[in-house]
Specification:
Largest sheet: 11 strands, mixed
Structural class: alpha+beta
Number of strands: 24
Strand content: 25-35%
Oligomer: single chain
Low-confidence stretches: none
Mean pLDDT: 97
Number of helices: 9
Shape: elongated
Length: 449
């Protein structure tokens, strides 16, 4: 055969490679052909294509910088120019991750015009994976690396772009964002077959759902994630959950299994996974999205190296795509900057409910973690709290911030011996609780009724 040297399409000019890492580069050629890669930063590695023509090798990257070039010598010669070395993040999920900086048709993103106008930056680059569901794991994807500029940024994922922009502005290194997402996709679609088999309630597909291909279990994992596995990354950000609303009861287990399988397959340790909580929206009377937000909160507290950007304060009851994507990107970036880049002195999380005890005066005292300098409602009345006794009937409650750090007191004249508190526990709740740094608390409950 005359196959000729090919690189997987994620490896192209303008790409960003993860700094200080042995990164994998792979492709195809004639079987048994020798492939040699040399880089302008002084590394060189060789390998042989296997009998099917597949080859893969690892190359050490230096610290952040560029532009560099890479030369691939096989049955033909390929030279890739304008390669940056920096921080690479995988960005996945459904339409709220997909929504571009310019907005969807008739759907706005706040500040989009100025963001696009001021976006020229050779250090921010994005690769957007083309939609492609598959019942079998693929090895290649379609997409191109683009550099941020007014003529490209409008089409970039807004949540991913603002996340990357914040990282680049603070770290001052190139940032590469690999975006693989599909509006309306379910978590099951992004999960591999082996992992899905652990769940008795999930049926493995024999064909792709024609009406909703993005909700076919494992189809997006196979077609849009599997081909990326092994590309050196720092971590992942995730904005999904709306499509799993009515299956909130297994969402925590599913997410933990999905992330664990991604980490195992990437084989570079427990990379960070930061998720965005779904925002308030009128989902209708039948479903309470607070249960899914609760599942997301549980995952963020119990999955290793994970965290969550809360969006309780930036939702729109009539609109499933919140306009404040810059706030989302910034909040995700606070996690990464604190946890992955060791920047101390900032809050990365809003208040997280920790424990509760009853006081003598028929009040409940709630303790929170997550905030350096405590709780605040920014001059507004504390609303959104409900309280119940043993009878499990909830009444609106009065709440007040105590003098103790991160402690709140909740009570109601209607409940003599309170045992449970809920906060913002509905589709479109009232909200009022923040850290002093302005990060919101998630909706939560102390009961499991």
């Amino acid at each position: 055969t005359n196959a000729q040297t090919k690189l997987a399409s994620i490896f192209s000019e303008h790409m960003v490679l993860q700094q200080n890492q042995k990164v994998s580069i792979w492709g195809t050629d004639d079987s048994k052909e020798t492939i040699e890669i040399t880089t302008s930063w002084g590394e060189s590695e060789k390998t042989k294509a296997d009998k099917n023509g597949n080859w893969k090798l690892k190359i050490q990257t230096p610290k952040a910088g560029g532009p560099y070039s890479i030369t691939v010598n096989g049955s033909k010669k390929i030279i890739l120019e304008d390669i940056m070395i920096g921080e690479v993040w995988l960005c996945s999920g459904q339409s709220n991750m997909e929504m571009p900086v310019k907005g969807f048709n008739n759907q706005a993103i706040n500040g989009s015009q100025e963001a696009i106008l001021n976006s020229t930056n050779n250090n921010i680059r994005m690769f957007t994976v083309k939609r492609n569901p598959s019942l079998t794991p693929l090895t290649n994807i379609e997409g191109v690396w683009k550099t941020a500029a007014p003529n490209t940024t409008g089409g970039f994922s807004a949540a991913a772009y603002f996340f990357g922009k914040k990282l680049e502005s603070i770290l001052n290194v190139p940032v590469g964002l690999i975006v693989t997402c599909w509006g309306g996709s379910s978590a099951e679609a992004w999960t591999d077959e082996e992992t899905l088999k652990q769940f008795k309630t999930i049926e493995l597909p024999t064909e792709i759902n024609k009406n909703r291909p993005q909700q076919t279990p494992l189809a997006l994992y196979n077609g849009m994630l599997h081909p990326l596995i092994g590309y050196g990354i720092k971590g992942a950000i995730w904005y999904q959950g709306e499509s799993n609303l009515r299956r909130a009861n297994n969402y925590d287990a599913l997410m933990k299994a999905m992330v664990t399988s991604w980490r195992n397959k990437w084989n570079q340790g427990d990379f960070s996974f930061y998720t965005t909580q779904i925002a308030p929206f009128h989902y209708g009377k039948k479903a309470n999205s607070a249960f899914l937000r609760e599942a997301q909160l549980t995952t963020s507290k119990t999955l290793k190296n994970s965290g969550m950007a809360v969006t309780l304060d930036i939702g729109d009851p009539k609109f499933i795509h919140p306009r404040e994507k810059k706030i989302v990107g910034d909040r995700l970036a606070y996690w990464a900057l604190s946890k992955d880049y060791n920047i101390k002195g900032i809050d990365y999380s809003g208040p997280i409910y920790k424990s509760m005890k009853a006081t003598d005066e028929n009040k409940l005292e709630l303790t929170f973690s997550g905030s350096i300098t405590g709780l605040n409602s920014f001059g507004k009345k504390l609303v959104g709290f409900e309280i119940a006794g043993e009878d499990k009937i909830f009444y609106p409650a009065d709440a007040k911030i105590t003098r103790k750090l991160n402690v709140l007191e909740v009570s109601s004249a209607k409940v003599q011996k309170p045992v449970a508190v809920r906060y913002a526990f509905s589709n479109t709740p009232e909200f009022s609780l923040f850290s002093t740094s302005g990060l919101p608390a998630s909706s939560f409950r102390t009961d499991n009724w």
